[in-house]
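Can you give me the bound-state structure? Components:
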Amino acid sequence: MRQKTATIQDIARIAKVSTATVSRALSTPGQVTESTRERVMQAVQQTGYQVNPTARNLRRRRTGSILALVPNLANPFFSQILSGLAAVVAAEGYGLLIADTQTDPDPATRVSFYLDNRVADGLVLFDGRLADKRLARRSRVPIILACEWGDPLFPSVRVNNVEGAALAIRHLIERGHRSIGHITGPRGNVLTDTRLAGTRSALRAAGLELPTDWVFHGDFSLDSGAAAARRWMDQADRPTAVFSASDEMACGFIGALQHAGHTLPAEVSVIGFDDIEVSGHLTPALTTISQPRRRIGERAAAKLTQMIAAETLTCDSEEIAVELVCRESVRTLASGLRCR
Amino acid sequence: MRQKTATIQDIARIAKVSTATVSRALSTPGQVTESTRERVMQAVQQTGYQVNPTARNLRRRRTGSILALVPNLANPFFSQILSGLAAVVAAEGYGLLIADTQTDPDPATRVSFYLDNRVADGLVLFDGRLADKRLARRSRVPIILACEWGDPLFPSVRVNNVEGAALAIRHLIERGHRSIGHITGPRGNVLTDTRLAGTRSALRAAGLELPTDWVFHGDFSLDSGAAAARRWMDQADRPTAVFSASDEMACGFIGALQHAGHTLPAEVSVIGFDDIEVSGHLTPALTTISQPRRRIGERAAAKLTQMIAAETLTCDSEEIAVELVCRESVRTLASGLRCR
DNA sequence: CTGTTAGCGCGTTCAA
DNA sequence: TTGAACGCGCTAACAG
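Here's the bound-state model for the whole set.
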């Protein structure tokens, strides 16, 4: 099975040049005479030689890959992001390593492991909890934080969640809603906090309150949305509209309500966050705040590869614009305006 | 920025042993005396030394990672599979490289690129089109095919799609349906073919036909499901039930119908394939054929790492069981039976 | 423009 | 059990 593959030495021998010249002919063709380059190329053709990236990386003191640390790979939210990431990373000549931080009992240890072992030339971190000062101090490779919040030391690519939440709330208010609830993400999550903060401030700006009863604690999952629906149904004084911090929860919320015989958006309006693929195909189609996930991945990869090339550990953060996608899940109340 | 990190030589000097002993103390502790091992470990502690995996891999003639080639990373269908893959691969001490074969104009070239460049010790292939004899001949590392069909040379982990389709069709028949349509996957896809074949044979076994008009060509996407719905609506003679080759298409189909004012499952029953997360939260909740995706990933990873360890290029294929998940999207017609 | 030399950091012989 | 020496395959530095 272990079949010997051609090395740079074989090429050198066949082409009757030194290994250094072979190396140059392949890496920096400009530095080599046309004729010798041809001899080398012919030998390469003949033997099917390919450079051994491990040896090259050892010599160049790099790894040739970028590591994406995802809190939960099973979450389809990351599909688009990873797709964007993969495209840019491949185009820049890196491999894309992916690891799930939740697989491990202690995610922080896992991150340390990766850093210490120099398995990657750069890190894309989708888990803000890990982005602390200690990590910043220890890391010898650039790190970019995507989607999440962490220590401001880290450059990041993310959307303005406060603004997104405000967009959602203002839309509901424009449509005539005055009693508005909110389904949150998991406790301790920065997205949860910022979207809740945006909700609160936008409501306050309109002179409205967010009663404790109308804050439904979720965890971004479908099931937690369904659980929120059950709590909504249990209430005597219900909000006429609910802003969900994720489309998944909105979807669970809507489903549970419909299964219980409620009609939407007649009985309650719903607005989500993310604009996942399925949202437009639900009944009613979900009005939501769109977050361009593929673009987030692309930008994170681009910035990271730039940092690696520049041998810097920092760069500017970038904010990706969110926008309101108006569909059918928000009802216009008597006094409200039309969409837009 | 380029800060020098401790090497095995530093440890050797500090612990006053040879580098060979340090290497042994770390890789095969049993071969080293307790006392010297302690000295080494202390030096390791003191310096924060970590082995350089690139150097180790060069020396061991391996790469330390496994490559997953996915036809479309943006497709959330792969989320769960990758999650299972990542968990097992990490536990076995490998890194998980991921690449999208569709990013490239010519996927086959890309695969060749990866193989020739020995970037991985093994390959998980989710794209059956690439699994041809040529690939089998050229590859020096084990390859496992997941979810898809390809040349029988390759070991694979997949579900029985013919059986899954038959399960769906038989369920519809049990529920009293006699006119049954099918939404297919993309042309040329093996899943498309096998599920269509299963559909046909199960119908035939019940003495039923599959008229050309009732074969709706899709591509597994939400939008193609919606397009199928439009064609369904255009027909004078409509099937009372439709088996969709993917849940995504079923979801698009249902959504488009509902938006057009149709009622489900009263007017048409729908059964899907995959059991994606959202299926249970739709209205009506989607009856479907469940495909344990996480398990597929886990098994593929396990089998691949075993092949690598055994230095073999082949192993037995494995079939993962599918099952019918009975929800609300299939209506029982007059003559039909209850679920199960 | 090309060749020589010297490692990158590690694991693995072969002796002792 | 340990150490010396070598080489995995490649590229960077320095001459020429």
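A couple of observations. The two ends of chain A are 66 Å apart (CA to CA). Chain A touches chain B through 64 residues (CB under 8 Å).
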